[in-house]
Design goal:
- The chain folds into 2 domains: about 90 residues, Multidrug-efflux Transporter Regulator, Chain: A, Domain 2 (Orthogonal Bundle); about 35 residues.
- The radius of gyration is 24 Å and the shape is elongated.
- It has a 3-stranded antiparallel beta sheet with strand order 1-3-2.
- The longest helix has about 35 residues.
- It starts with 14 loop residues before the first strand and ends in a 14-residue tail after the last helix.
- The protein contains 5 helices and 3 strands; from the N terminus they run E-H-H-E-E-H-H-H.
- By secondary structure, the chain is mainly alpha-helical.
- About 55% of the residues lie in helices and about 5% in strands.
């Protein structure tokens, strides 16, 4: 993520979505999607109807990006953001989500190791079929 702009001289009322996109590294389309899903909200709208944000949007987008990387579903993400905005501590909620995700990762690792072992057994027992190999064809 790029450095937050020192000033918002392009629009003194707030940051336009293009500026937010540029400095957050997220596409405008993604930011609009997050608005449509109720994850973020513009601080206000310009007279022309443009969404305007304050600099706190970068913190929220960073949190959203982190939670989406953890594959937190949108409804749960929305709930976490609402609790965070209310000023209530949501540490236990977030900790529970992380623990749940870790358990899912551990299970996936176990499943992949078992699958690897099965493939290893298959390859170790592999016998040539006796047919013509492609490298033997002139």
């Amino acid at each position: 993520m790029a450095t937050v702009p020192a000033d918002n001289s392009a629009c003194p009322l707030g940051l336009k979505i293009g500026q937010v996109s540029e400095y957050s590294g997220l596409p405008v389309k993604t930011i609009r999607f997050y608005c449509d899903q109720g994850l973020i909200s513009p601080t206000k709208r310009s007279e022309g109807g443009y969404r305007l944000f304050d600099e706190s949007i970068y913190t929220e987008l960073s949190l959203i990006r982190t939670l989406r990387t953890m594959e937190v579903p949108l409804p749960e993400l929305r709930r976490i953001l609402e609790v965070r905005r209310s000023g209530l501590c949501n540490c236990s909620s977030l900790k529970g989500s992380i623990e749940s995700k870790m358990a899912a990762i551990e299970q996936r690792i176990k499943d992949l190791r078992e699958m690897r072992a099965e493939f290893r057994k298959l390859l170790d027992g592999w016998q040539e079929c006796g047919g013509i190999k492609t490298d033997e064809i002139s």
